[in-house]
Amino acid sequence: MPGNYYQVLVQRHKISLVDSTIAITTKVQGIIKGQYDAGLARKIDLGRVAVNISNLQSRRQQLINAVMLYENQLKYAMGMPIQTAIQLPDVDFSSIQPRLADAADMPDLSNRTELKLLNQQEKLLQYQKESYKAEYYPSLSLSGNYGYQTLGNTFPMGKSGGSSGVNWFDYASAGVTLKVPLFNGFATRSRIRQADVAIRKFKEDVDQTKLSLNLQFENAKTQIQNNLVILNNQRINVDLAKEVFEHTQNNYNNGLAPLTDLLDAETSLTEANNNYAAALLDYKLAEIQLTKAKGELRSLLKNQQQNMKRP
Prior knowledge:
By secondary structure, the chain is mainly alpha-helical. It folds into three domains: 1-91; 97-137 and 183-298, Outer membrane efflux proteins (OEP) (Up-down Bundle), CATH 1.20.1600; 138-180. Helix content is 67%, strand content 9%. It has helices at 2-37, 43-78, 113-133, 187-253, 259-293, 297-309; strands at 139-152, 166-179. It has a two-stranded antiparallel ribbon.
């Protein structure tokens, strides 16, 4: 579910980036329109900008559809009716401060649901073994019974109902049973040995599970470190693409750069922003995997649910 949550936020962020690009391109279109009316620009330049705006609007609609799909997946994961509207808080992506995983921060495997479940299963196996051992113990049981009985030629209307020819009498019994196991063909011993084998095998499974969980933690830590490098590189690319676009736009306005350079710079800026958003999503997903490997995913889910309930 956290993955779906961040996918919705990233797709919404991409929509805001496309809206910003559309606003910039529309402004450029107005400038070119004025130049065209003054005879300083070609009609083909005006058409190129119009095509670019149309492509951006198509891209925006695709993102809106993607947001709806991810929201439906999120509602399904939460057990929420699909028809119900969902409100997610706006997130300032610039406020997200990625950090490296602490190499000395080892996961607390005791918090993992997998190991808690295995521990309960081990207790059940121990109980089963003890139940087999109990077959060697002698058992003593006490039983008792008490009741009334009637015999006669007519249907009795009660013990003192005045029915003739009916005899009532009571009866009681008590018994004591002592069972001492002597020999059952080594069946009990075989069951105990089978239980021991099952317990030893189960302990091997527990060790293998711990090894797998440690592997998940190390892989998640490595993944988040790799994503941090990519995220930082994409952030630098966004700053460079923005700087190039601003310089190219200024040069174009002053007649020092062709329209092709301006459109290429605009495309590069949009692509850099999208790549940064995708890298940010990958980082958050890797962060979730690291949190899960540390056995702290439940606290993360609680925090997100509290954030989504806020107005």
